[in-house]
């Protein structure tokens, strides 16, 4: 069976994307998805997404982790899939889609950035030296120094596979404050390695960075793959709404592969 795919990346977080509005690829198996995401024996990607049709929304987002298993919400993935939807002509200025964590809105900015509205956050666990919250996917956040020299794979996997998180898993974010924002590096579950960027991760980190009074915030974020921006309203130290993840989402190439 021949599969036509597109490759997209958002600040180095890269994805295999498939137009599945006809439902041809509903039954992709876990081994098949894992092989398609393999960087040596497949196309290569941090995840795979299907763009499905929807009666109530412009499209539906189905996301698989690089290990081939169904994943939770992926922020950069949602932005890349939205860029793909625009390429298909589904919408041009704004769109609405449904994902595993609920409905999302998208605005296509004039500078080429894709702005994705995330789900509200109504609880943040604040512990000794860490934060834990869900921004569509679970995220452990720890502030550090010397972030560029960190062994993110080792430090991240130690937390992801500790007694608390081993069964369900969590993403692990290391954050360092910069002159005007934050630098974030993320170990992603499902990839089981560091990625160049993680949209739900930088969102989680940005919310914890807002240590001031309630109100509107804009947080510039640097990742290994480039700059992002998170905008939101802080209600209190554990409640945030009107959250937008903003950044580039770029087509890389397309092709066909036999599965």
TrEMBL record:
Keyword terms: Amino-acid biosynthesis, Cytoplasm, Isomerase, Lysine biosynthesis
Q: Where in the cell is it found?
A: Cytoplasm
Pathway where this protein functions: Amino-acid biosynthesis; L-lysine biosynthesis via DAP pathway; DL-2,6-diaminopimelate from LL-2,6-diaminopimelate: step 1/1
Q: Name one GO cellular component term.
A: cytosol
Residues that hold substrate according to the record: 13, 65, 75-76, 171, 188-189, 199-200
Q: What's the Enzyme Commission number for this chain? A: 5.1.1.7
Query: Could you say which residues are annotated as the site Could be important to modulate the pK values of the two catalytic cysteine residues?
Result: 139, 188
Q: What does this protein do?
A: Catalyzes the stereoinversion of LL-2,6-diaminopimelate (L,L-DAP) to meso-diaminopimelate (meso-DAP), a precursor of L-lysine and an essential component of the bacterial peptidoglycan.
What is the designated name of this protein? Diaminopimelate epimerase
């Amino acid at each position: 069976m021949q599969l036509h795919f597109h490759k997209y990346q958002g600040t180095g977080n890269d994805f295999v994307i498939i137009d599945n509005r006809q439902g041809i690829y509903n039954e992709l198996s876990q081994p098949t998805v894992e092989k398609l995401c393999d960087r040596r024996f497949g196309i290569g990607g941090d995840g795979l997404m299907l763009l499905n049709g929807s009666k109530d929304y412009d499209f539906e987002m189905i996301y698989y982790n690089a290990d081939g298993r169904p994943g939770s919400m992926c922020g950069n993935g949602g932005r890349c899939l939205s860029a793909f939807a625009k390429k298909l002509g589904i919408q041009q200025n704004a769109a609405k889609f449904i994902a595993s964590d609920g409905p999302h809105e998208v605005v296509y900015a004039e500078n080429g950035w894709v702005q994705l509205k995330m789900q509200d956050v109504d609880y943040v666990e604040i512990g000794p030296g860490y934060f834990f919250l869900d921004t569509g996917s679970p995220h452990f956040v720890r502030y550090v120094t010397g972030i560029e020299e960190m062994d993110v794979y080792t430090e991240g996997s130690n937390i992801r596979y500790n007694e608390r998180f081993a069964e369900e898993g969590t993403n692990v974010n290391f954050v360092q404050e910069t002159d005007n924002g934050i630098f974030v590096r993320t170990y992603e579950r499902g990839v089981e390695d560091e990625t160049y960027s993680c949209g739900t991760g930088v969102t989680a980190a940005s919310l914890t960075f807002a240590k001031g009074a309630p109100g509107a915030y804009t947080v510039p974020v640097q990742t290994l793959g480039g700059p992002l921006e998170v905008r939101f309203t802080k209600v209190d130290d554990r409640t945030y709404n009107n959250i937008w993840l903003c950044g580039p989402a770029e087509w890389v190439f397309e092709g066909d592969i036999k599965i």
